[in-house]
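Hi F.,

I've been meaning to write this up properly since the lab meeting, where we talked about keeping a consistent format for the predictions we share between groups. The idea is simple: the sequence comes first, exactly as it goes in, then the structure tokens exactly as they come out, then a line or two of notes. No screenshots and no reformatting. I'm using this chain as the first example so we have something concrete to point to.
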Amino acid sequence: MRVLVDHRDADGRHLATRVLPVGGGTSLGPPNSPWPLPELGARLSILPGDDGGCVLRWMKHERRLARGESVAFRVEALTLTLTLLVDEVVGGAGACPRCGMSLRRLLGGGAYRSVARDVARCGRCGVSVLELEDAGASLGQFIDRTAQDWYFVSVPHRCPKCEQLLRRSELTTRHGTSQVERCEPCALLVLDDADQATLTGRRT
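Output, unedited:
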């Protein structure tokens, strides 16, 4: 069981998205957690429930979250939207590989204009799916440092085109290195805003 956490500022601008496991000790906020978020002031714990959902606890407050349900959590300038993902394996034909929502087709362009033929974006979590011309054309733009590994790590996210499990790849450009998800047969890259900022040198 996993929960999608969307972090936005007071004006609704997207800052970050993470998918966290629901289990013993999963929490957000200070002082020591995978995602400190000092604005929370206290820990937000994410615990498995006895009904197949999860329980959110913050200070003296408690909220139950069912599968597929979202809840907004606001503290001053901090806004978090937490969604309990419906399936352990997320995505599929036309769906976002991170949260399962329908993808919206966009025109290719920006920093990826030389390699991107088509772009799809998730309106919920901001993930972009880029279709590449071919692997050879993309090598001038980035290097997949995991391409020659004798093993690969699959992730519980399905390709929105062929529905096979995506694999984790480490891409490097002249601006930086980021771990992304990739479907080799379909020549697709799955990137969130933080990945794009790292690989293009742009600030989100």
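Notes:
The radius of gyration is 18 Å.
The chain is about 5% helix and 45% strand.

If this format works for you, I'll send the rest the same way.

G.
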